[in-house]
Amino acid sequence: MRSIITISREFGSGGREIGKKLAEDLGIDFYDKELLEIASKESGITQELFVKHDETYTNSFLYSLVMGNYPVTPDGRINPEMPLNQKIFLAQFDTIRSLAEKGPCVIVGRCADYVLRNQDHVINFFITGNMAHKRRRILERYDIEKNKVEDFIRKTDKRRANYYNYYTDMKWGEAKNYDLCVNSSKTGIDGAVELMKAYIGIAEAAK
């Protein structure tokens, strides 16, 4: 096993659960919200601020990040004069790169597929699902009124899409941007994991 696995996911599709189980089955590290905690410790910025800005884009900074001209000091550190929100995004993306350098792992969301696009042995999955299944899953996990669930799902996915589309030159959820798209409503959680494990095995054998 040598691959870095990234998972993009629709809200309510079970992406986090699938990613965690996949990592457990493969015996590798798993990062979702855990990534924010690591970035917080490495940057010295409180975790609450990372959570507040999680997968939410900021126009001016993300443009500069895409263009590769974000300000750093001569020795490569984040410029202390950079606005706080910019430090948060840069620290998060640097954390994704550093985690990938340590070896095989599963990283959920946060444009990890784009951040690692130039690295070898990266496999990108997208998890989707039918609205009825996603709705039922969210109702089981969150205290939300039934008549507001679908709107909550759509708004969450829109936020994720806006973040991804702005930061990258690709479109969130578009099949051609991923190695494999999985409908967890049809496979179930365990079936999705098995399908992804099979794909990883095939992909690694082909290299």
CATH level 1 name: Alpha Beta
Give the amount of beta strand, in percent: 5-15%
Strand order of the largest sheet: 2-3-1-4-5
Q: What is the N-to-C succession of helices and strands?
A: EHEHHHHEHEHHEH
Summary keywords:
207 residues, alpha/beta, Rossmann fold, five-stranded parallel sheet, globular
Summarize the structure in words.
The chain is built from nine helices and five strands; from the N terminus they run E-H-E-H-H-H-H-E-H-E-H-H-E-H. With 207 residues, it is α/β, with parallel strands linked by helices. The chain has a single domain, classed as P-loop containing nucleotide triphosphate hydrolases (Rossmann fold, 3-Layer(aba) Sandwich). A five-stranded parallel β-sheet has the order 2-3-1-4-5, with helices on both faces. The radius of gyration is 17 Å and the shape is globular.
In short:
It is built from 9 helices and 5 strands.
How is the secondary structure organized here?
Layout: E1 4-9, H1 15-26, E2 29-31, H2 33-43, H3 47-52, H4 59-66, H5 84-101, E3 105-108, H6 112-115, E4 122-128, H7 131-141, H8 149-167, E5 180-183, H9 184-206
Helix pairs in contact: 1-9, 2-5
